[in-house]
Amino acid sequence: MQVFKQHCQIAEEYHEVKKEIALLEERKKELIAKLDQAEKEKVDAAQLVREFEALTEENRTLKLAQSQCVEQLEKLRIQYQKRQGSS
Length: 87
What we know:
mainly alpha, 1 helix
């Protein structure tokens, strides 16, 4: 009888441990999914930083080109006005 009670108690403990293992396995899957998502977001953020830096550089280059075009246009206006004045 004592052996049977011990067997029942061990079986119950075994069942509880199996249930806890299943819960921990599920939690592990959730954490892995969160980690994967965090890594993806990190990669996405790094890509956005690179794009921002490239666009900032392109913007700087375009502003410089625009400034040079404005200067050239002003020089052409002055030349045109001089030609109009001397004609």
